[in-house]
């Protein structure tokens, strides 16, 4: 098994809440392991129901789904805990982070040659590898680096952990750090680090054991942001996107932005989505630009699939200023 | 304007419920007209919010969305009324069917040459053209045809109206009819007619003014159904699809099918979706086949986008029989 799904915690949860039926919500990359959960729950005579919907983060907990099928327990796999979601008292959610069983020491050792010129390293990781944080830290220290890390302002998150939309832990040590290292599959987390801190990031992907600097990705993203913000400054009409996912639901901010846009004689309408994607937005293609109040990563990571500018909350101020001058990358993921 | 959005009804609705904020839910093909509603509602000083999610039918009314944004009024455009949905007493929904302004007489006159060999015609239409039903009926009668029609067992539907999953009106006159005529955009409704009745259908699309028989489409669908049912008979494991849309939510049937499959030593798990699509199902691709308890049209119209057999509720019995013998096309859309 590639991940530790902590069956002992699942067993405890089942006993604690006398679970007979449970909704299993797996992060998208982990849905392929559904049979593991079927088998495990069969041993305890528990009926599993699988959530088939996308699951992007701790902001996206299937509380409504569970209610609709009449269960009051959820096993949510792949994230550390709730992100801006209040779990109601009559709903019990077990979070299984899905710690990766991959030993990342060899990958980190491989990468060390690339960072010889640096001394002060900011070390951060996705939840999947956070249990190896101290090992990596030790390895870096043995090799003469000074390692900085911190905990997010979201106290549900672990020390050294970052998620796509919360990089506050990394920002805290920014002044001390010459180079960040991001330990996570793909480079989604590393891009977050680079945008939030504006510093150089070495991305180490434990699944491929490849490491690379994110400079060229960041450069491209900045060019895209500046281009789209400039276009949005000229836009006459705006669609303001609101997500109905509890952890992404920012209707008050959307209302405020709408009001302010109307004040400067732009048209603006609010569009609410359960799940946003570029194809759905095409149905509202009469707007010149969009403001995204949902997950800020949609506007960044899917930018090439949108046909029009999609700005995040932190970028709206440039519309009112009428200029992209002094653009800061942190605005790309501020919300 | 291509459609009559009945602004007088909207005005009445606004006054009746003292509407200040309203959720506008447009059927997918009609979302492009959102500006019409913005403009109209601005006149009454009403704040519109647009639903960006897909809207496939009267089974899919954005009651949850409205609740989440704190509004108790919905203007639902493009369908006749609720389909297997109970609208709660504290939610007010105005249905605007969106009657097409296209004059379909010329298209029907054009088509008459193609049906000269027939005498007894079953005439049915989508809601968009139902207001011209009597005109078409008269035209056919003037040309020597005998016209049959009826009303659905769903009394919310109009006389002569069919929807993708409810063809009961057409079935009622089946014995009297030699040929059905379906008046609707595309051929979605016509395919429903053909499957439900097993009779020949002339499809008249008022938007393109083209008419054609659906024989070859039906033949292809039957071949696909037989192929996939045969594969499903051999399947060892089944994913049972449940939609959380109120009008498509059939968890009890899903539970029953699961139980019966387990009894004949097949594996089966229930997967719940807010919105089903082939890409989401790929996350659960370890199943050999799927049973769809949601909208039956998903399994028929999207068949080529699924990688595995997806059977509808009416087709499950063939798994238990172990044979596709005596397959009836009505099973394809029974639920």
Walkthrough of the structure:
The structure is a homodimer of 335-residue chains. Chain A is of the alpha/beta class and 335 residues long. Chain A has three domains: 96 residues, Rossmann fold (3-Layer(aba) Sandwich); 109 residues, Diphthamide synthesis DPH1/DPH2 domain 2 (Rossmann fold, 3-Layer(aba) Sandwich); 116 residues, Diphthamide synthesis DPH1/DPH2 domain 3 (Rossmann fold, 3-Layer(aba) Sandwich), CATH 3.40.50.11860. In chain A, 33% of the residues lie in helices and 21% in strands. Chain A contains 13 helices and 15 strands. Chain A has a five-stranded mixed β-sheet with strand order 8-7-9-10-11, with helices on both faces. Chain A starts with a strand and ends with a helix. Strand 13 of chain A pairs parallel with strand 3 of chain B, so a sheet runs across the interface.
Secondary structure layout plus pairing:
Two copies of one chain form a homodimer.
Chain A: E1 3-4, H1 7-16, E2 21-26, H2 34-43, E3 47-51, H3 63-68, E4 73-77, E5 92-96, E6 99-100, H4 105-112, E7 120-125, H5 133-142, E8 146-148, H6 168-172, E9 179-183, H7 188-197, E10 201-205, E11 210-213, H8 215-234, E12 237-243, H9 251-263, E13 267-273, H10 278-281, E14 289-292, H11 296-301, E15 310-312, H12 316-321, H13 330-333
Parallel strand pairs in A: 2-3, 2-4, 4-5, 7-8, 7-9, 9-10, 12-13, 12-14, 14-15
Antiparallel strand pairs in A: 1-6, 10-11
Radius of gyration of chain A: 21 Å
CATH fold call of the largest domain in chain A:
Rossmann fold
Secondary-structure-derived class of chain A = alpha/beta
The number of domains of chain A? 3
Topology as H/E string of chain A? EHEHEHEEEHEHEHEHEEHEHEHEHEHH
CATH architecture of the largest domain in chain A: 3-Layer(aba) Sandwich
Overall strand count of chain A? 15
Give the overall shape of chain A: flat
Count of runs of 4 or more consecutive helical residues of chain A: 13
Largest beta-sheet characterization of chain A: 5 strands, mixed
| Low-confidence segments of chain A | none
């Amino acid at each position: 098994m590639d991940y530790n799904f902590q069956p002992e915690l699942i067993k405890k949860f089942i006993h604690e809440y006398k679970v007979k039926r449970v909704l299993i919500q797996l992060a998208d990359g982990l849905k392929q392991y559904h049979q593991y959960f079927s088998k495990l729950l069969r041993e305890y005579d528990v009926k599993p129901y699988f959530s088939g919907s996308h699951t992007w983060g701790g902001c996206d907990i299937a509380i409504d789904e569970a209610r609709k099928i009449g269960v009051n327990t959820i096993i949510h796999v792949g994230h550390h805990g709730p992100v801006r979601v209040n779990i109601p008292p009559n709903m019990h959610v077990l979070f299984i982070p899905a710690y990766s069983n991959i030993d990342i020491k060899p990958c980190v050792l491989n990468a060390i040659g690339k960072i010889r010129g640096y001394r002060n390293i900011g070390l951060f990781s996705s939840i999947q590898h956070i249990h190896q944080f101290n090992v990596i830290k030790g390895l870096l220290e043995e090799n003469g680096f000074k390692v900085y890390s911190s905990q997010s302002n979201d106290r549900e998150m672990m020390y050294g952990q970052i998620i796509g939309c919360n990089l506050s832990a990394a920002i805290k040590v920014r002044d001390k750090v010459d180079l960040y290292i991001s330990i996570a599959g793909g480079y989604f987390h590393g891009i977050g680090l680079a945008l939030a801190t504006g510093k150089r990031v070495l991305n180490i992907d434990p699944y491929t054991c490849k490491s690379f600097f994110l400079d060229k990705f960041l450069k491209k993203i900045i060019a895209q942001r500046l281009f789209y913000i400039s276009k949005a400054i000229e836009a006459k009409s705006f669609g303001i996107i609101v997500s109905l996912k509890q952890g992404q639901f920012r209707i008050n901010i959307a209302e405020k932005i709408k009001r302010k846009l109307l004040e400067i004689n732009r048209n603006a309408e609010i569009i609410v989505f359960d799940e946003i994607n570029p194809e759905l937005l095409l149905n509202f293609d009469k707007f010149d630009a969009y403001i995204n109040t949902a997950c800020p990563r949609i506007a960044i990571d899917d930018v090439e699939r949108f046909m029009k500018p999609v700005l995040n909350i932190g970028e709206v101020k440039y519309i009112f200023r009428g200029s992209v001058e002094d653009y800061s990358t942190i605005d790309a993921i501020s919300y």
